[in-house]
Amino acid sequence: MSTYSNILAAIDLTDSAEQILRKAQELVLSNKTVLTVIHTIDYLPYMGFGETALITPTYTIPNEELINNAKAPIEQLLKKLNMQGTNVVYEFGNAANEIVQYAKENKVDLIVLGSHGRHGVKLLLGSTANAVLHHADCDVLAVRIFD
């Protein structure tokens, strides 16, 4: 009997994505389960600061373009790992919030993501892995990423 039936692997566009996907792939093979990859795009919409805008609407990039910029490297990585055909979901917003929300809405029972194991000031600033761990309704596997 499988321990997990619906795994979500959260990746970004850094080198750590390969380590996370390799671990998720191991779990999928040993549990004979479904895998979805989620990539979140945390962009800065128009923001005012005092009397002048920091980012004006004319400088914002359309969502489709942001997704297209992420697709090529993710598809290339999935091909490298022989994981073509894996369902990839693109969400906009805060990474931790989007990962937790997607997991709840789609009955995910394991989230696999990376953790750099930062300490001190960097830890106080918060991390996606820490936020997901504390807010997810399912198990979370943090793959240790070494820089």
Characterise this structure:
The chain is of the alpha/beta class. The chain has a single domain (6-63, 81-94, 104-144), classed as Rossmann fold (3-Layer(aba) Sandwich), CATH 3.40.50.620. It is built from five helices and seven strands. The chain has helices spanning 16-31, 63-80, 95-105, 121-124, 128-135; strands at residues 6-11, 34-41, 47-49, 52-55, 87-92, 110-115, 139-144. A five-stranded parallel sheet has the order 5-2-1-6-7, with helices on both faces. It has a two-stranded antiparallel ribbon with strand order 3-4. A hairpin with a 2-residue loop joins strand 3 (47-49) and strand 4. Helix 3 (95-105) packs parallel to helix 5. The longest helix has 18 residues, at 63-80. It starts with 5 loop residues before the first strand and ends with a strand. The mean pLDDT is 84.
Essential attributes:
147 residues, alpha/beta, Rossmann fold, two-stranded antiparallel sheet, globular
What's the layout of helices and strands?
Layout: E1 6-11, H1 16-31, E2 34-41, E3 47-49, E4 52-55, H2 63-80, E5 87-92, H3 95-105, E6 110-115, H4 121-124, H5 128-135, E7 139-144
Parallel strand pairs: 1-2, 1-6, 2-5, 6-7
Antiparallel strand pairs: 3-4
Helix pairs in contact: 3-5
Q: Kindly state the number of beta strands.
A: 7
What's the architecture, going by CATH?
3-Layer(aba) Sandwich
Q: Tally the structural domains.
A: 1
Low-confidence residue ranges: none
The dominant shape is globular
Give me the secondary-structure category.
Answer: alpha/beta
